[in-house]
Amino acid sequence: MLVIGNGESRKGIDIDTIKDTKIGCNAILRDYFVEHLVCVDRKMVREAINAKYKSNIYTRSNWIDEFKAYGVMEVPQLPYKGKERPDEPFQWGSGPYAVLIACNLGNNINMIGFDLHSKDKYMNNVYKDTNNYNRSDHHFIDPRYWIHQIGVLMEIYPDKRFTIYQKDWQLPDQWKLPNVSLDNIDNL
Length: 188
Known about the structure:
8 strands
């Protein structure tokens, strides 16, 4: 399984050459085909439908009635009950849901484009300054929810193997688990 976030670290990687089941987020549909496309934002679901994207498209339960007629599926229910705000399903973004779908489909989960942090104070997203995305001078998104949500999945699925491909990057403390490793993106 290859789970593809939209962080800038994945620039220059030809995702089409990677032979694996691919799960991507939002505007990746503009550049690559992925078997599973996660769009928890209504605007991105509409973009995928208007593009006649031929993939399994997932969105949150709040919007499913609006898109079910187009074959859009609901993201899986969270496999745990938490007590904090980041544990609420509506607080989950496309990236963490994409990792959850990968957990449901396979045992080896390779992740690219999950940069989490910006190298400066601005947006870190390959699609910034495009339709349905913030401008490049928009402040970066606080990654605490993503770190928590993906970390919980890594904890509750100890038999799954998570490999994050990055360069000059540190694993968040919550992700430092026996089933999680960091590899250089050049080795992908």
